[in-house]
Amino acid sequence: xxxxxxxxxxxxxxxxxxxxxxxxxxxxxxxxxxxxxxxxxxxxxxxxxxxxxxxxxxxxxxxxxxxxxxxxxxxxxxxxxxxxxxxxxxxxxxxxxxxxxxxxxxxxxxxxxxxxxxxxxxxxxxxxxxxxxxxxxxxxxxxxxxxxxxxxxxxxxxxxxxxxxxxxxxxxxxxxxxxxxxxxxxxxxxxxxxxxxxxxxxxxxxxxxxxxxxxxxxxxxxxxxxxxxxxxxxxxxxxxxxxxxxxxxxxxxxxxxxxxxxxxxxxxxxxxxxxxxxxxxxxxxxxxxxxxxxxxxxxxxxxxxxxxxxxxxxxxxxxxxxxxxxxxxxxxx
Length: 333
Prior knowledge:
It is a single chain. This protein is an alpha/beta fold. It has a single domain (about 25-325), classed as 3-Layer(aba) Sandwich (Rossmann fold), CATH 3.40.50. About 30% of the residues lie in helices and about 15% in strands. It has helices at about 85-90, 115-135, 150-160, 190-195, 200-210, 210-220, 230-240, 245-250, 260-265, 290, 310, 315-325; strands spanning about 40-45, 55-60, 70, 95-100, 140-145, 165-170, 270-275, 295-300. The protein has an 8-stranded mixed sheet with strand order 1-2-4-3-5-6-7-8, sandwiched between helices. Strand 1 and strand 2 form a beta hairpin. Helix 2 (about 115-135) packs across helix 3, helix 3 (about 150-160) packs across helix 9 and helix 6 (about 210-220) packs across helix 7. The longest helix has 18 residues, at about 115-135. Pfam families: Abhydrolase_1. This is AB hydrolase-1 domain-containing protein. InterPro entries: AB_hydrolase_1, AB_hydrolase_fold. It comes from Rhodopseudomonas palustris (strain BisA53).
């Protein structure tokens, strides 16, 4: 597997729960009392070009030199860091782990503003810089889900030195369709204007996020009625917070989808592990041959839906660890 030259290990760093943190990064008491933490660990907030961001951090209780791991949830009407919970809870015992909540989702601000590809990419770059500040400027490992894989790829191309490796779970952008391969989004302005009409904006979102409807979409995602009920419960809670409709309306209107996603993936230079399922509505990877043959890419398909880390957590972690084992010598996970 081709990769940049390995970096030298930085001095031993303390895992997030016991490391000193600057007062500015410690989050104030939660203002959304009805929304519990999506994962364990400490809640922090930072200012960034994408606005004020919320993230969660945890890790071993003793000092470690393990490479930090950043986990990034998908983008949909009910996105939150809960979507990476199985991986977060697994890896926090052995390495520093971080879970960001992107602008418009979870405990991050949900104000009414324009949500863009640039904003999401800047959020990933900002949390990456914060993690590196804490851990001595070392390259990190990062994993993203679904549409966030496109933001992750863009961030990795803009700051390749910041990432030791990237993992993409059920990435969008590999659909069997002609691509324009040019910059820009797939925005449909009139559709967004329709959804955000104040006469029915909240009503429509309320209908789309009723518990049975969320369950319907989770069934489509998992390709089975055997989906995680904890995810259903949290999805319902997070979609019933003030301003919860704003970012999802930009999502369904195409503003967050990149025209040039295939090119972004092909341009990545660090080791990349792509994984996906074969069940449900999100199984079109007809264009994955564009990257499957690249020397820095490896691809794993699971007999699951679009969230294999929920359905096969042990097998998924073993495969991820095997991917780590093949990386250039650096700070071991």
